[in-house]
Amino acid sequence: MKEKYLNFLRGVSVNKIGKVGVILTTSSFLTFIFLELLRLSGVLTNAYIGLITYMLLPTLFVAGLILIPIAWQKYKKQTGKTTKEILNQQFTDDDLEASRVGSKLFNTIAAFTIINILFLTLASMRTLTFMDKPEFCGTACHSVMNPEWTTYQTSPHARVVCVDCHVGEGIDALVSSKLNGAWQVVSATFDLYERPIPTPVHQLRPARETCEKCHWPSKFYGSKLVTKVKYAQDSLSTPYYTTLNLKIDTRYDREKAGIHWHISSKNLVRYISSDDKREQMIFVESLQQDGTYKRYTNKYIAGIDEMALTEDDFRIMDCVDCHNRATHIYELPEDAVDERIRKGMIDRSLPFIKREALNFLSATYTTNGIAERAIRTGIERFYLNNFRNIYMSREEYIDQAINVLQETYNRNIHPGMKIVWGSYPNFIGHKRNSGCFRCHNNNMIDANGKSIDNDCTLCHSFLSYSSDEAFKYIKPAHESGQDSLIHETLIEEFIKSFN
Fold first, then answer.
1. pLDDT tens, 22-69?
2. What DSSP character marks residue 294?
3. CB 375 within 8 A of CB 405
4. Of 114, 201, 301, 341, which is least surrounded by CB within 10 A?
5. Angle (deg, nearest 10), helices 353-362 and 368-386
6. Distance CA 306, CA 281 (A)
7. Can you tell me the mean pLDDT for 478-499?
8. Does the pTM of the predicted model rise above 0.70?
9. What is the 3-state secondary structure (H, E, C) of 416-455?
10. 457-460-461-464 Cα dihedral, nearest 10 degrees
């Protein structure tokens, strides 16, 4: 059996082109099987090996198959022989002898054809499966996607595969994503992509097809009590606590609505922004009960031909218009330091640690390596020069703080992709007059000159705002690890203090 197939391969190799085709086809097939077994057994997990296995090898296999008939056609022209004459030349009479089920050559060709079809089908299926894995998305184009891969791995959605949000369900979504992926390959190959990469809000599937598979708007009701902690830049890095009662309702009940009113099935909000960053609104409209839209116009933006607008110019507001960094979350330096102090990753008892951490983290560096060295040198020198005793007795805590700050910098800053602090603003909340205040501001006015309501109590009520009285009751909750949702008894005592 083995000899028969070897004779067949020698027979179809009529010239050098045919031999190259046979070598490519045979070697890529055997290598694919070998690497696939190693991957299935868990020995190989690297994404680059996956690229070779599922993309390069099938391509070489098909190229080899194409070269074989090309070789025969060229050989026929060079020798002037017919196909029958070449067959008689390359194969024995026994191979060509006809039988009840066909000649041995015909049966061999049929067997190889079936093997080829099965192999290409398997390779295609495994390729699609491999391309759906986060490791492929994040590491195959390492220099381009490394920032997104870095933030993804520490995100709330680290166990959600990329395609669930970036592709969605259905054949249309799959085809569209693959066509878009092909252009991304071209862009990466010829360095045609932007730096930093724009947020692909227009390429994402609608939130109702992705986010709402897990997060049901109908389940957003009531309110949620949260406490936020900030640290001063004094010697004690003094904590200040703000306690909020967030209104997360989707419903409009007794003239009271919550944050998720915007995406309720009973409401529809749409807008036009001045650019793809969606930070400056031109128009905002909300659907009324009579089927018309109430429009709010930015009074500082003129020259828009309203008659030329079509439905396609508007974007219907959904989850990602506010939760725009639900997975690839880039921090601001002060928020990053506060969060790591809160979690105990940076020891707050180190004098002026908040101030010094923020100073060295916020500085501008040309490379991540230079940043790491500057952070380490700066923090060590500060404590060595100003608090020598603390430096000598608590060196391990200082070293831990340095390592955390270096990791924080590398997570958020990527010079190669021109990603710096603030490159990707987070629209949750209203930092830097962004987020909620994009629409809820005095510049967005209706036909009667009335602006969109921007009162704080629309979205939340304050139980405390960095006050000593709040600190008295909230500090124990923070120290017990309950500062994200304060214990009911503490809340009751806190509310009583106002009566």
1. 888 888 888 888 888 887 777 766 666 776 777 788 888 889 888 888
2. E
3. yes
4. 114
5. 150
6. 14
7. 43
8. yes
9. HHCECCCCCCCCCCCHHHCHHHHCCCCCEECCCCCECCCC
10. -130
